[in-house]
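Protein modeling request. Please complete all fields; requests missing the sequence field cannot be processed.
Requester role: graduate student
Desired output: 3D structure, token encoding
Chains: 1
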Amino acid sequence: AAMADATPRPVPQRPGQRDLTQGPITRTLLTFMIPTLGSSILQSLNGSINTIWIGRLLGEDALAATSNATTVMFLLLAFVFGFGMAVTILIGQAFGRRDIDGARRVLGTAMGTFSLVAIAMSAIGYLLAPTILHWLATPGQAMPLALEYLRVIFLGLPAALIMTMLMMAVRGSGDSMTPLYCMLLSVVLDSGLNPLLISGIGPFPRMGIAGSATATLIASWAALAALVGTIYWRDLPLRLRGPELAYFRPNPALIRIIIVKGAPMGLQMIAVSLSAITMFGLVNRQGVDTTAAFGVALQLWTYVQMPAMAVGAAVSTMVAQNIGAHRWERVAKVTRSGVLVTLVITGTMVVLLAAADRTVLKLFLGSSSPALAIAQHIQLLGTWGYLLFGVTMVLFGTMRANGAVIAPLIILVIGLLPIRLGIAALAQPLIGTDALWLSLPLASLANLIMAIIYYRRGTWREARMTGPAGPPIPVEA
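Delivered output (477 residues):
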């Protein structure tokens, strides 16, 4: 009987939803991961298109301004990422054990709690925007533009954070298509409205850099409305109705699990953000051209790291469902498959970017920009490190799916703060600004070595990430 209970029963699937405890490992992983990767591509493409509009229409000062503001927003999204991953894993494990009511309880508590947090963060960020930009050592000529842009972005922050959390929750149920569709809507609105609001084309007002931020604000709120509407229109498994609306009242036990497990995962992303913010402080001291070049290099790196992040998230969700279904024999296979997929896709991206770097960079900076040669040099030195980063993310994804979140945090903090920043600061007198660009791949190598050691010898398999038990999902004929 115990063996029979360990094998999950088939569950009726909604369109776009997958049972990640069944079928061939690599094919299942790819089928679930590709829409997640598509969402990441669309999100990064949106940022790149907006950067092109700003760089071409408003110049290097505006480009430097948005680069600093984007770093701040990444820090805030990192705050939600950790808790979103905890929600994803709890929902994934609930679906693995066929507990749909438990999954809805997790979603209700998450939405009820973090919607209020997002609104508070928006208000505080709007008021503290000048102080935040001073902390970043934003160049003086870029400061007014950065402040104007950042304050409008903060008005759209609640929608961006809530949508991020909700999309991660939906993916935990095995549905990676619905978030893809909503992200597509957001990108079409944002990239389409950007030039209209920047330049005042047709009936639209001429808003300059604030127009770019306003386009993002409109797109974020519209996409969130579309995501919520789709969940109810298609009657997706995570929708809450009738008595289930009471689940929006935060459950203290669930909040504790989400915070205890989510905070370290969020701190991982915040460590990445703090490292990036500190790097921006070092880069800003090199002048506006170098800051603009570094901002464009970061745009390209977002594409290179997207497959690793998508595979890591897919591995985490897939492992969580299999742990919930007590199918531990599939966990190591999922991890190995994730590493292979990451190396193939990321390696291809690195090679393609190396072959066409100048052509791509011209899209952002123009062929006569003094920042072009700097950006080309930056990406040449730093891009290869994302191969190492990708494997680390897959290993972290497996470990966190079982609730092991402290060791990955420690590993990442050691690599990105003392190692990366130490190399950037201490080696700069010896090799100049190349120390800044080489610090990331060398830190990624250190992270990978530590992650492999912990994955092979650590106690992550003994960790547990528990949620509320509930009745099994009814199986329909």
